[in-house]
Design goal:
This protein is 54% helix and 4% strand. By secondary structure, the chain is mainly alpha-helical. It is elongated, with a radius of gyration of 67 Å.
């Protein structure tokens, strides 16, 4: 405001503060209200005017004097009228005369001339109208003028003017009292000591309110209006820091009381009292911006109008982060390196291929030398990969620079080494699980962002509206607090007008306008009065997507009168289900009656469950069904749609991520079989409940989780090696019941799948074999890989005895063998396989075979075990406690040979005859029992040909000599082969046979081999021959022996013992002349007789 405007305001407040009757001469005219005496005044005026008219009408007689005649009481009426007219005329003239004192001439305007008084040019209005001010104090009885609030105009000159006026008033003769001016202003209006010189008396005022005690004033207003119970005390404490004007606080709470009394909502107090107070605070602190808000203008309107923009940015932020996590997981899955060490080796090998030939080391500087074979083990290998230049160390060539700038891209063009390191780290299960949890959380945030409160959206993007706050007074601190704390948001309109029930809000009206324009609003479009919106919609609209609004569906569900409309909504959803996923997601997230909605939808549309399973949002739908449907309905859906259980089991982790609270009881009625309990480790209460109910698949992963996380026992190899034993020994009744109820599945999925399950307890093995429903071949696979042997065949089920025996899974004892032979399922091949095992044989032979009569079947099996390996058969035959009386008829010659070798068949003529046709076995049989034969050779029908074979058998030389003595040797001259056999035997036994004739001797010597043997036999048997026969024999020997005859020859023999003996007896019998030794050697020279 200008100084003139301030002075005009002061003058107006001063003059217009007094009654107009008290300032009749003031030039400032005011409207006067007629009082009680105005009736009489108006009657006086009318009467006076009538009197004047009468006098004017009688003017002629008045002027000639006849009017007053007679001048007595008889003419009182005419005289009185004339007198009254005269008095009225005087009073009128007097009134106009007095009124003329208040008339001022401001200007006279002619054609080209305007005359103004000089006072019109004065700047000060107070000075210009100083006479009015003096007149005011002369005409009134005021003696104190209070001046306040002038300090806010920051103009101290006005105080100088007021001080001068105060002095003039007090110095005026017409003012007979002292008038004082009292000023209320801030200390800083005058600098330093000026104020003490200016004012006569100064009274300091202690401030009533400031930011530190404003809370007390605010609370006091709450108590005054009895609002303490409705208002949030914390909000009052916080907002009071921004309110430091007591009048402002009074005004805010007075308006609050008025608004509360007028805001009606069907008699229900549904409006937030704190938000209403926030709106009124904003209204009073920022009145101009609040006024513009009604027209959709101003800073607050612009901030609230950015809600859609903030939502879009928030959604984009979430989706970008989801995409980043998904790319990270995908990149990690594509990474071929299993760990960082392998990745370093890949890059080290690739770098080695790019280096010059014969490079032994590299360095980042010329001084550094890193051996190539250690490069892959260095943690700082990335520095070598990214270095633009490397220094290669080459023997005999020194250091050489190598351009390495393009190396990293040559290995992997799209990803750097650091990115591949992160990919490997992201392959870890912990990161993957965390990433999946984060993605699930972000997707839920995307769905919920449109229902987020405005302050939440605003906090995430304060920079977007920062400039709008700055344009408000006080830098927008109060507005910032109200908006960011959620006390002021886009629901402000409910608090700024009389919002009576039954009226459409702007948002409701906008919704109806859009559907009439054939535009489908968003499912989360805000509707404030759904009942009024429903009333404004056509019946056909409920069979279209117009009715798919969260608030509308909630309203339809709340009242039974809308059942037909709901049926139309459900019919539309069943027909357009794939295209309405946005509505379902919105309603699941923000609907107030999700349970009722799903129950009615499932009843109205019996194909809802199959349709959801086939849809793109199947996990979300099934999660909401589990969460909101009652157990009975879930059980019904499970029975009618078996695929429901399978889907839940396959997607349990994702479903639990969507379930509110993860209540395991909600899964009980589905009777699912969770495929991977470890995948829901983040929901331990659910995993434990499924374990207790037995609702999980029987697989190794689930058992690992149960033992490790629920039972708290050791897993890994300790569990895998004896899985069923650990289950039986766990003592966990839910686990035992689950396994026993579906043992076939447990056996097929777990026990058979664990190749290292080979250390089961005996009881566990026998328990598995007791299940008749299992496949025999699978049982055999399981049993045969166990390392523990079953101690007793009697405990093994009959149908598996052959299996355990064949697989050598039974303890190797003679009693088990005998028990198997007696079993109904006895298989000779199985027992043969068992006995043929080296370890089994070694163990069995450590104990003696039973000799009791009961063991005869075992002994018979052993001796008749044709399919046993020869080595095993021989070992068992050796262990037989007794001999058998005859050869088994079903065994092969090899086995009979073993029986003969081990002397396990009685030697008699009958058994020998049983071997007819098998000359070798007969010969062996006699040879192995030669002593028995020699004791009574006549009991056996054996000829010289047989005896000849015995001579070649493995018997002693004496026994052979005894056999020779039983032979007819006269045929030896004609049987050179037999003679060649007999000769060596005679040599070894010194030829102690008296019946040797010269022909026999000659045949024996001549057919013997080699020459040395012939010489030895001749030395042994020469006495049987005469000289001529000796020379005959010598003549048949090889040279030089054949030359020892008569004549001039001198045979030369090598000096050996037999040759020395030969020449000795030849010389003694005078068959040769003499012997000698040549000078050049040690040989023997034989001198012959010449005739």
């Amino acid at each position: 405001m200008t100084k003139q405007e301030i002075e005009r305001s002061i003058l107006q407040q001063l003059l217009y503060g007094a009654d107009a009757d008290k300032l009749p001469l003031s030039r400032f005219k005011r409207i006067q209200s007629p009082g009680f005496w105005s009736i009489f005044r108006s009657l006086y005026i009318v009467t006076g005017l009538l009197a004047l008219w009468h006098v004017f009408h009688k003017r002629a007689v008045i002027f000639d004097g006849s009017y007053f005649k007679p001048f007595d009481l008889t003419n009182w009426l005419d005289i009185s009228v004339a007198a009254f007219a005269l008095i009225f005329l005087w009073s009128a003239i007097h009134h106009f005369y007095v009124a003329s004192f208040g008339v001022s001439l401001k200007s006279i305007s002619l054609k080209d001339i305007e005359i103004r008084p000089s006072s019109e040019d004065q700047d000060s209005i107070l000075n210009r109208h100083l006479d009015e001010i003096v007149y005011f104090f002369q005409s009134t009885r005021y003696d104190l003028v209070i001046v306040e609030d002038l300090d806010r105009f920051e103009d101290s000159d006005i105080f100088v003017t007021l001080r001068e006026i105060n002095s003039l008033v007090n110095g005026n003769v017409g003012v007979r009292r002292r008038v004082r001016f009292l000023y209320a202003l801030r200390d800083d209006m005058f600098v330093n000591t000026d104020r003490t010189k200016f004012f006569e008396f100064i009274i300091p005022v202690v401030p009533i309110i400031n930011s530190s005690n404003s809370i007390d004033m605010v609370l006091a207003q709450g108590k005054r209006l009895e609002l303490d119970g409705r208002l949030n005390q914390q909000f009052l404490r916080e907002v009071s820091r921004y309110l430091s004007d007591l009048r402002l606080i009074y005004n805010i709470f007075n308006e609050y009381a008025i608004y509360v009394a007028n805001l009606e909502t069907d008699g229900e107090n549904v409006l937030d009292a704190t938000k209403l107070l926030a709106v009124l605070i904003y209204k009073n602190v920022y009145p101009r911006d609040f006024e513009r808000l009604h027209r959709g203008e101003g800073h607050l309107a612009e901030i609230l109008g950015r809600k859609d923009e903030l939502i879009a940015k928030r959604e984009q932020s979430y989706r970008s982060e989801i995409a980043e996590h998904e790319r990270s997981i995908e990149t990690a899955e594509q990474e071929i390196a299993k760990n960082l060490r392998e990745l370093r080796r890949i890059y080290a090998m690739a770098l080695f291929e790019t280096l010059p030939a014969n490079t032994t080391g590299v360095g980042r500087t010329a001084q550094e030398h890193i051996a190539l074979n250690t490069l892959s083990e260095r943690e700082d290998i990335e520095q070598f990969i990214t270095a633009p230049t490397l220094y290669c160390h080459i023997p005999n060539a020194g250091r050489r620079q190598h351009n390495n700038a393009a190396f990293q891209k040559s290995v992997a063009f799209e990803l750097s080494y650091a990115e591949r390191v992160r990919s490997i780290e992201h392959k870890a299960d912990a990161y993957r699980k965390a990433a999946h949890r984060r993605i699930a959380h972000l997707r839920s945030e995307v769905k919920a962002v449109r229902t987020s409160k405005f302050n939440v959206l605003l906090r995430s993007s304060t920079q977007e509206v920062e400039s709008l706050f700055e344009n408000l007074g006080d830098g927008g601190q109060l507005a910032r607090f109200l908006l960011l704390e959620g006390h002021l948001d886009d629901s402000y309109y409910q608090y700024t007008s009389l919002f009576h029930s039954g009226r459409l809000s702007p948002s409701d009206n906008k919704f109806l306008i859009q559907i009439r324009a054939f535009h489908t609003p968003d499912p989360l479009f805000p509707i404030d009065n759904p009942s009024e919106v429903i009333a404004g919609m056509r019946e056909d609209d409920f069979g279209l997507d117009y009715a798919l609004n969260v608030r509308l569906v909630d309203a339809l569900l709340e009242r039974k009168e809308h059942e037909e409309r709901l049926e139309k909504v459900f019919a539309y959803l069943s027909n357009e289900f794939p295209n309405q996923q946005e509505f379902f997601e919105a309603y699941y997230a923000t609907g107030s009656h999700v349970s009722e909605f799903l129950m009615q939808l499932v009843d109205a549309w019996r194909g809802f469950v199959p349709a959801t399973i086939e849809g793109i949002s199947a996990t979300l739908h099934i999660a909401r069904l589990i969460e909101h449907l009652p157990p009975a309905m879930l059980a019904r859906e499970r029975e009618e749609h078996p695929e429901l259980c399978e889907f839940v089991a396959d997607n349990l982790r994702d479903i639990l991520d969507l379930l509110e609270g993860g209540d395991p009881v909600k899964l009980e009625e589905l009777r699912i079989e969770a495929n991977d309990l470890a995948a829901i480790a983040g929901y331990p209460n659910v995993a434990r409940k499924l374990y207790e109910l037995g609702h999980y698949s029987l697989n190794s992963a689930n058992f690992d989780y149960i033992f490790g996380s629920i039972l708290g026992e050791e897993v890994g190899p300790a569990l895998r090696k004896r899985h069923y034993s650990r289950v039986r020994n766990s003592g966990a009744e839910p686990l035992l019941n689950r396994v026993d109820d579906d043992f076939a599945t447990y056996f097929a999925n777990v026990l058979l799948g664990l190749d290292d399950d080979n250390e089961e307890d005996i009881d566990a093995i026998l328990a598995v074999m007791s299940h008749d429903e299992l496949d025999t071949e699978e049982i055999e696979t399981f049993v045969l890989r166990q390392t523990k042997l079953l101690p007793s065949l009697e405990e093994v089920p009959e149908r598996y005895r052959a299996v355990v025996v064949r697989g050598a899974q039974i303890a190797p004892t003679w009693s088990n063998c005998l028990a198997f032979i007696r079993a109904e399922t006895f298989e000779s091949s199985a027992l043969t396989t068992f006995l043929d095992d080296d370890e089994v044989r070694a163990t069995l032979l450590e104990t003696q075979l039973p000799d009791a009569k009961e063991a005869l079947p075992l002994l018979q099996f052993l001796i008749n075990a044709e399919d046993l390996g020869d080595e095993a058969y021989r070992a068992y035959v050796q262990a037989l406690p007794t001999k058998f009386k005859k050869f088994p008829g079903s065994i092969s010659p090899r086995k009979r040979r073993i029986l003969i070798d081990e002397r396990r068949v009685t030697f008699d003529a009958q058994n020998l005859a049983a071997l007819d046709g098998e000359v070798d076995l007969q010969t062996l049989f006699v040879a192995r029992n030669i002593a028995s034969y020699l004791r009574d050779p006549s009991s056996f029908s054996i000829d010289d040909d047989f005896r000849e074979r015995l001579l070649t058998a493995d018997i002693t030389s004496d026994e052979k000599l005894a056999i020779i003595s039983l032979m007819d040797l006269s045929s030896l001259p004609s049987l050179p082969e037999r003679a060649s056999i007999v000769g060596p035997i005679l040599l070894r036994t010194n030829g102690a046979i008296p019946s040797l004739a010269p022909d026999i001797v000659k045949a024996v010597i001549v057919n013997a081999k080699p020459v040395g043997t012939q010489v030895q036999l001749l030395n042994l048997l020469h006495e049987t021959l005469d000289k001529s026969e000796v020379r005959e024999v010598l003549g048949q020997l090889p040279d030089p022996y054949s030359k020892i005859q008569t004549g001039y020859a001198r045979p030369l023999l090598r000096r050996t013992n037999e040759n020395s003996e030969l020449v000795r007896w030849l010389e003694a019998r005078d068959i040769i002349s003499s012997v000698g030794t040549p000078l050049w050697s040690s040989d023997i020279i034989v001198y012959l007789y010449r005739s």
